[in-house]
Amino acid sequence: YAAKAERTVVAHYDPQRDTASRERLRTRQMLRRAIEQDEFEVHYQPQCALGGGAAVGVEALVRWRHPERGLLPPGAFLELVEQAHLMPALTLVVLEQGVQQCAAWRRQGRELTVSVNLSARSLLDPELPGQVDALLRRHALPAAALVLEVTEEMIVTDPVRSLATLDALRALGLGLALDDYGTGYASLRYLRDLPFDELKIDRSFVQDLGTRAADTAIVASTTELAHALGLRVVAEGVETAAALGLLAELGVDTAQGYHLCRPVPATDLSAWLEARAAAAPPLPAGAQPLE
Ligand code: C2E
Ligand code: MG
Ligand code: MG
Ligand code: MG
């Protein structure tokens, strides 16, 4: 019997799987340590009103200040965080920093909103609305100053539970944005049935705006549809003055992109806001809406 048991164990032992699970454990411990050591920091990218040009909000974008590898973009680690089941923890880190910073800017008289990206897992987390509520109270930030961004892919996973979370968040009085619009399933049912306040047109339609007629048609009709449904429209990935001008003509509400400002640490954003406020006509003449 002993010999048989041993054979069974040997037969079932898979060194590759063992290495993989040990590797996962190591990654999880490394990420946990990074969270505890405050290595994740939030950078901010402004969103500016088209026609006027005032910064009306910022998007919070997480970075990992890695002790050896330097500043890492989310594309380099979000997948790992997700696999390690640490996304709810990271979401709280970003929310905490974003809400605190937004409250600080408001105390300085800057009426900005802060937008924070959620993950699919956060959207299925029944504890999230309560945590967000507590956070807003702790930093005395009005709920209307916070916008949470989700993508269509995140909702598809479990539309019923996602809707429950979105409704609970909405009941707090904060804003909800549909991110990367046009790249996913772009189901009109989501626009009709889910409680969004804002639609963010994906940068793939915005980056080269003005060079392809199709992009102009898509941005124009999406904006018209969103407005008819009572949603604000944000264009992501504005990289050129030409795109900015066209977006204003097409009636898009706000713009976000490298042409205006890259995501930067909070102190740099404060300086950018100051410089912009001091500067004369903030947008080129071509960017003024047509009468
Ligand atoms: P996103 O939410 O769609 O954020 C916009 C991304 O586009 C950011 O990349 C931003 O730096 C980049 N971007 C802004 N303007 C331009 C432009 O003019 N041209 C181009 N080419 N890119 C521009 P980033 O910071 O690397 O973030 C990538 C994605 O990672 C985000 O896409 C979002 O899905 C995710 N992400 C970022 N921060 C968080 C977070 O705190 N939590 C979660 N769950 N996801 C996050
Ligand atoms: Mg986003
Ligand atoms: Mg996006
Ligand atoms: Mg994205």
TrEMBL record:
Taxonomically, which superkingdom?
Bacteria
Does the keyword section mention Transferase? no
Where in the full protein does the shown chain start and end, and how long is the full protein?
472 to 762 of 766
**Stretch forming the signal peptide:** none
Keywords, A to Z, come to: Membrane, Transmembrane, Transmembrane helix
Q: Name one GO molecular function term.
A: cyclic-guanylate-specific phosphodiesterase activity
Its name, as the record gives it, is: Bifunctional diguanylate cyclase/phosphodiesterase
EAL domain: from which residue to which, for each copy? 24-277
